[in-house]
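Progress report, Aim 2. The chain analyzed during this reporting quarter is listed below.
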Amino acid sequence: MEAYTLLRNFQRIILAATALSILLEPIAPFSLNEVISLLGIVLFLVALPTIKPKNRILPLVIVTVGLVIMWLTSQPFGVLLNGAGSMLNIVSILIVMQLFSIPIQLGTYTQDIEFLLFKYIKKEQGLYFFTTIISHFFATFLLFGTIPVMLSLLGEPLKNNVRNFERFAATAMARGYAMMISWAPGAVMFLLVTGITKLEWSQIFLPGFLLSIIGIATSVLLEGRLTLSKERIISAEQDRRNINEKEAWKSVLEIVTVILSMIVLIFSLEKTKIFPSTYCVMLAGLFIFGIWMIKFRRSPDLKAVIRKYWREGLLRAVDLAIMFVAIGILTKVVEKSDLITAFYNSIGISRWGDFVIAIIPLVTVFLAYFGLHPMITVTIVGSIFMSFQNIIPPTAIALALLLGSIVSFIVTPLNGINITLSNYLNRPASQITLQWNGLFSLIFLVEGIALIYLWTSLGI
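Predicted structure tokens for the chain:
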């Protein structure tokens, strides 16, 4: 037990040191790349024994494949070292974005939003729309913690006010969360795609945000026709809630201000061309978090919440860090081996033309559905099709990867979102993914591909 606790504390220190090193890298008088890479390897070795056995299989397989390719192609150890730290900037952004859970816990934002939601929404379709929107925007702060928070926040009120609670909650929350992938600066998949395509956040934000709007609108209209009741919902006992409505609206305004401030600040930092895009996201997150925390500097719960972040929140990045170390190694090894070029030539991708835009999301979803994690799928598919950027713009490739990622998260049973929903709602993951989300995913795929073709043809 003491050894386990020691390892967990060591993991926290390494994660914090990694984030600090990446934050200092652009302004340090010497390169910290080797330090970051070594931290990644050490983290991989000390974290692997402490995670669940089933979660060890995939990163071990990925690293093993990378080592075999490296050995067969006689690559130096420096390639492995470089790869181990190449994607840790994404983990560092996740660490920063999880800081936003601190003011969310210290404030009354969740209670205030629940109060306003049930006070003013009188029909299931309106309630469905706002449940999706709240899940969507909370996901930009809470990331992987969004689904548990939303279920604890709205679970009981929704049970008392909607006809088909299980489908309502599963579809609204899963789709609301997944749509965030297309534009949110802290979304892991979004950062992975920008890293693969070498694009800035601002270059994908507008079409990505439009993609999320189309997805949410389609979801609301489809569920309105299929399952949502047209009858008036029951009030959620507002009279018993000691909440000031004016203060509740202030909470909503604060959340909106934080989101808009993040967007403006990231966009402004990127346009200076001084720092890399991922660094701009990290810097903006720290700045906005610091400003937001001024409000809670005297909160009696501040120390306890910060302690909770150190003990629990920071460790949520461990599984992802291990995965990204493994993916980084495999990606760098494959890049140096010329395997992508050989594969590219062997299947004649150059003859496919614009059809590639439709192929990318379909292949991404297909591989993800049969057990390959979307992060791995996007890395493989993105690396292959980026060789096509002389014909298809990188923006179109990025949007196609994001579209495939969104649908993969919604429709594949073996991911955290649907497993959490399955456990909480006591429904099979296959029912949530195929029966409830299958038709929507198919429609959204068609809409998304059409949008990408349109965006590409306009040459924006």
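DSSP finds 23 helices and no strands in the chain. The chain has two domains: 2-85, 94-299+338-458. These observations will guide the mutagenesis work planned for the next reporting period.
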